[in-house]
Amino acid sequence: MNRIATAFLIFITGFAGAASAETYTLTIKDHKFDPAELKIPADKPATLVVKNLDGTPEEFESKPLRIEKVVPANSEATFQIRALKAGRYKFFGEFHEDTAKGEVVVE
Questions:
Q1: Strands 37-40 and 22-29, sheet pairing
Q2: Quick check: 27 and 100 in contact, CB under 8 A?
Q3: Which of 4, 8, 28, 85 is most buried, judging by how many CB atoms fall within 10 Å of its CB?
Q4: Percentage of the chain surpassing pLDDT 90?
Q5: Rounded CA gap, 79 and 66, in Å?
Q6: Which residues pair with 3 in a beta bridge?
Q7: For residues 37-70, b (16+ Cβ closer than 10 Å) or e, as one string?
């Protein structure tokens, strides 16, 4: 197979994988995540939308998911999550760590 055909095949395969990513939504309200436990399938990429419904910003952070970003008040942020192995991946809101906690449960 020549290089152009190989590059095209890689492009199409990557595009098909990105297009099949399911979208999951977390909301932040009263400095708490809802749901606090978000289930997603193992070995599949996903899109995560974090909606901040509070009147103050929150920093969504997860070291295992490799995400750290401030979500402004009454706004949202979108993240691409790589295909993950089964397990529990903690996240929290750095500005309200005492109440803003949760986990992505990969099954």
A1: unpaired
A2: no
A3: 28
A4: 80
A5: 10
A6: none
A7: ebebeeeeebebebbbebeeebebbbeebebeee
Inter-residue contact 71 to 88 (CB < 8 Å): no
Cite the DSSP H helix spans in the chain: 3-19
The model's pTM:
0.80
- Rounded to whole angstroms, the Cα distance separating 100 from 52 reads 11
Q: How far is CA 78 from CA 17, 51, 65, in A?
A: 17, 9, 13
- Rounded to whole angstroms, the Cα distance separating 4 from 32 reads 49
Whole-angstrom distance, CA of residue 24 vs CA of residue 47: 6
pLDDT at 1 over 60: no
CA end-to-end distance (rounded Å), the chain: 37
Residue 73 tokens read as: 């008040």
DSSP 101: E
- Can you tell me the mean pLDDT for 32-44? 97
